Amino acid sequence: MKGEMGSEMKGENISERLEAFAVRALTVARTLPRTLPGRHVAGQLLRCATSPGANYEEARGAESKADFIHKLGIVLKELRESRYWLRIIARGELLPGVRLASILQEAEELAMIIGRSIVTARRRA
Hints:
mainly alpha
């Protein structure tokens, strides 16, 4: 029971971080210039950066270990795509790179955590 409780709390922490990541991405998208490139990148970022949290919640309610692993894979894929669009924003000088450093770091950390979770879940399957 104690292990389960710790696991649940760990899951809550990741869930909260993914939610905060999505909210931060909303702010980034909102501050992008209202040009054709800015609107395009904003839309792409909104789709991929808000997806990991929702998919993580689905994974937490997975019907099987395989379903859990599959859904975590989607979370990881969307985090990687989010990193891509954040880097495009910086390299395309749509926003100053220094302003994106923190959210890029969070995307990297979350991707590493989810990646390790997938490896662990596969090993236990």
